[in-house]
Amino acid sequence: MHRKDAFAYYRWLVLFAGAGFCLLPLWATLIGGFKSSGDLRTNAIGLPKVWVAANYASILTDDKFWHMLWNSAVITFFTVFCTLLVSSMAAFTLAHVRFAGKRWIANYLALGLTFPFPTAVLPVFIRVRDLGLLDTYWGVILPQVAFNLGFSIVLLRGFFSELPKELFEAAFMDGCSYTKMFWKITLPLSRPILATVGVLSLVGSWNSFLLPLVMINSDAIYPWPLGMMQYQGQYSTDWGRVLAFVSLTMTPAIFFYLLAQKHVIAGLTSGAVKG
39-65 b/e with 16+ CB inside 10 Å = b? Predict the structure, then answer.
């Protein structure tokens, strides 16, 4: 076998193995929603012996499911919107505006990436309680935005810094303000990285469990991750319905990612090759 052919063969083999490793949990979750609890214990990955469609049907006909899905949609939308708005403004300032302490601020934001969220649960809870935002959407949205900013600003600043400086110099010579350069030049040219940050923020907010668990006590504003607890009893768990619930609720995030996949890949690979 020719060396190039062998390299292509092993490359595709590794890619297929990686794809299978990633898709196996999705397959087990989707198929597990059609199984009974006994079938799940003996046959976790294979096809069901008896298809139990009632797991999905009972969830889709339950008003609580749609209400929790709406709560998640509201929280996720405002989290993504606020994250993109604040982080893009901050990244543009750090990339194109000269002021004292700019490098220190950028390093401080990058340092924030090293702290995991669970270490800050208690102080965040105390602050949210003092602001009177417990059991509200904003009690979840604002902390999520705050923890998204460090990573988002680092990504956006790197992309904004690679935009042609001659374009901004020409706009500045024509009397264009920083505000106009941000809205009319930077953002239209930054759709790939904005889509990347938006998808990462969306998936993180959509799947967040610990923060809503700490901040929300009223089931009226439960997002979907907390909805899984209704299938867990003191002595047993209806795993078939849990997996069906997870399959249904992760579908919107997967659908959104597939729509934005091209922009996400372009945003992550921007600047990797200069020609």
Answer: bbeeeeeeebeeebeebbeebeeeeeb
